[in-house]
Design brief:
By secondary structure, this protein is mostly helical. The protein has one domain (about 60-295, about 315-435). The chain is built from 22 helices and no strands. It has helices at about 5-20, 25-40, 45-60, 65-80, 80-95, 100-110, 120-135, 140-155, 160-170, 175-180, 180-200, 215-220, 225-240, 245-265, 270-305, 305-315, 320-335, 340-360, 365-375, 385-395, 400-425, 425-435. The termini are far apart.
């Protein structure tokens, strides 16, 4: 059989396995192994790739930053940093129409500076802010839609695991990618907050009761509890921007800083530390299994000729580059219905990124716009990981369908934000272009 047709059949087989619920990393590895065996006709060659790839992939030094950022976020979670930021925001903006929802967006932005997981953020703020919003009469669909959509901000504001992995896959500067997320994160937080305000003004029954007022003294005093978030954010993000740290050094500094804060504030019990370490191991193992499987599958696609054939066909077509980019973004929105973000990147970037470079687009801009599209895809049915996280945290208060209905307006607002990033690419590129390089 022609290798290209074999590659196409392998792609079909992969999606069939994923539809059957086979773990992504395992499905990628199996299809890639069988495909290489079929092309070379040599079991020795295929098993050689299968046995050497895991070490070659997981020994990449740049991956060291992943467990460090994950551990930093989990320690920050156990320190109650998300709760501190939310409570402060609640006292400052709570009496604005939709103020509790806006406080949730502000809390996600602050918590995102110490945690690079949208699922964790969605879970944390569902437990923190949904009870408060329900107390003041917020519509339950509206409240859960806010927490599910607000979680995507945490994956954009550095430290972002997606930015790290995108940099590793494409060999782009990880520090620049981390800083590139600040502009889009603030943009989406602003658009979502304005959207909450507008929806409540148009439909007051969404948030009928105003919280009690707070004095200016109480507002300023609430900022004292956010010192830990501010310190970690300035250390990690500021260190990368000023060239003091490499991303790996920033991750190590952040993880150590979060541990010391948790220890000296006496909020880190032995049980909490064990949970944070075990969860870090689970997350990192999951990521690396996907990377191993994706690497095997990518090698198969390369030797089959599917990758090069697709690249040549796209570059040689008459489709305008802007239309092609919009098609790529739409593809990520659709893939979000079936795959998690890490799998999407490892499946698509080896094929798509060379096309983006050939069309002359800024690689940092494209990768961050892609991450925004991937995060929006996590709000779409039927997979919608953020929605599942909110459902798990909210319990029987609301159905899955209700959360998806609550998320819909924010998905539309997110698409508007993505369009703005196309019109004003400097929102993404300004900070990376002005950062100082590590000495």
């Amino acid at each position: 059989m022609d290798p290209i047709w074999l590659g196409i059949l392998a792609l079909i087989a992969l999606f069939v396995l994923l539809a059957l619920g086979i773990y992504v990393g395992l499905a990628l590895a199996v299809v890639g192994f069988v495909g290489i065996l079929a092309i070379y006709g040599s079991f020795t060659t295929a098993i050689g790739i299968l046995t050497t790839t895991p070490f070659a992939v997981v020994s990449v030094f740049a991956l060291t930053v992943v467990p460090l950022f994950v551990l930093m976020g989990l320690l920050a979670l156990h320190c109650g940093m998300g709760e501190a930021v939310y409570n402060a925001a609640f006292k400052w903006v709570g009496r604005i129409p939709g103020g509790l929802g806006i406080a949730t967006m502000m809390g996600n932005t602050g918590f995102g500076a110490v945690s690079g997981s949208s699922v964790v953020a969605a879970t944390v703020f569902t437990k923190l802010s949904v009870p408060q919003m329900r107390k003041y009469g917020y519509d339950v669909k509206f409240a859960c839609g806010i927490t599910a959509s607000g979680g995507i901000i945490a994956m954009l504001i550095p430290p972002s695991i997606y930015a790290v992995l995108a940099g590793i896959i494409t060999e782009q500067p990880i520090g620049m990618l981390l800083l590139a997320g600040i502009g889009p994160g603030l943009l989406i937080a602003t658009i979502f907050s304005l959207g909450i305000f507008g929806m409540v003004k148009a439909r007051p029954n969404l948030a009928p009761i105003e919280p009690e007022p707070y004095t200016w003294g109480e507002r300023f005093n609430s900022l004292k509890s956010t010192w830990a978030v501010l310190l970690l954010a300035l250390t990690v993000v500021g260190g990368i921007y000023l060239g003091v740290f490499s991303p790996t050094e920033a991750g190590a500094t952040g993880a150590l800083g979060a541990f010391l804060i948790a220890f000296f504030t006496r909020r880190l019990t032995r049980h909490a530390l064990k949970d944070a370490l075990m969860e870090t191991v689970r997350v990192v193992c999951m990521v690396k299994l996907i990377i191993i499987g994706a690497n095997i599958f990518s090698r198969f696609l390369a030797v089959s000729g599917v990758t090069q054939g697709f690249i040549s066909a796209v570059i040689g077509s008459d489709v305008p580059p802007l239309v092609m980019m919009l098609m790529f973004m739409f593809m990520y929105l659709v893939l979000g219905m079936f795959l998690d973000g890490i799998s999407m990147m490892f499946l698509t970037l080896p094929v798509i990124f060379p096309i983006v470079l050939a069309m002359g687009y800024n690689p940092i801009w494209f990768l961050m716009a892609m991450i925004v599209a991937i995060e929006l895809g996590l709000l779409t049915p039927p997979l919608g990981l953020n929605v599942y996280a909110v459902k798990a945290a909210a319990g029987d208060q609301i159905s899955m369908e209700g959360i998806f209905q609550g998320v819909l307006p924010f998905f539309i607002l997110g698409v508007i934000a993505l369009v703005i990033l196309f019109i004003f690419p400097s929102i993404i590129t300004f900070l990376p272009n002005t950062m100082l390089k590590p000495s």
